[in-house]
Amino acid sequence: MRVFITGGTGLIGSAVVAELLGNGHTVLALTRSDASALAAEKAGAEPLRGGLADLDVLRAGAARADGVIHLAFSNDFSSADAVANAVAEETAALTALGEELVGSDRPFVTCSGTPAVPGRASTEADPASTDGPVGGRSRTVTTILGLASRGVRTSAVRLPRTVHNQGDGGFAGLLTNIARQSGVSGYPGDGTQRWPAVHALDAAVLFRLALERAEAGTAWHAVADEGDQVRDIAAVIGKRLSLPVESVPAETYGPLGQIFSADQPSSSAHTRQALGWEPKHPGLLEDLENIQP
């Protein structure tokens, strides 16, 4: 099918584009700049110039496609206002895309985060987390899933806090960047809190499977590692960068401090059984060994 994708040149999106093209689909990719347009073309996709704020462009892209995958998000976590603005921009974009697809029975795959459930690993049956600085993303995705009753084959791939490739990406990537800047490979609290993770190439397979097979209104977990302790993540980062590893205040991580401190393991058992998804690429701790000093 012809697939319109937002965020198609990012760490996850570039893997999704390659996965789609490698399985017989064609791709129309939203691109914000000349550089991203060239990257999309080089990957084999057709670029469509525009950003998430260009709602008419989004509608036009969806109208030209047999299905839509949404991945784009302004990953500016510098302040609470920046995060709120990014969430608002995404909400408007998803609303526009969804309205364009109403009554078409076409697939619309979006993404959110795996929820945190006290005392156990979260599952696909748990509601999306709507608290915290990015809780608005989950509220919007829940609304989009409701379009199943209006003739859209909606599904949501819930991504863990770290989607990684070659030692970069996600929350672990943020820990690495902060460690480079501060000279300490830090973790909040005692570091026993667990973060789920998945390799970007494995996540890409799940996005394709959801596009092709998922029933309307369903949520899926792109989780390979159910939960790595954050102090273990910091230890590998510290080893690779030759930096001390120690606990630091949650405030070090700004608006993400609360999320960084939370224990949030997650299961993908149902996703694996129902869609036949099976992660094959290196886990997070192994992949972090690719961090360059």
TrEMBL record:
InterPro entries in the record, alphabetically? Epimerase_deHydtase (IPR001509), NAD(P)-bd_dom_sf (IPR036291), NAD(P)-dependent_oxidoreduct (IPR051783)
Q: Where is the NAD-dependent epimerase/dehydratase domain?
A: 3-218
- Name the Pfam families for this protein: Epimerase (PF01370)
Disordered: region residues = 115-137, 263-293
Q: What is the protein name given in its UniProt record?
A: SDR family oxidoreductase
Q: Which species expresses this protein natively?
A: Amycolatopsis minnesotensis
Q: What is the lineage of its organism?
A: Bacteria, Bacillati, Actinomycetota, Actinomycetes, Pseudonocardiales
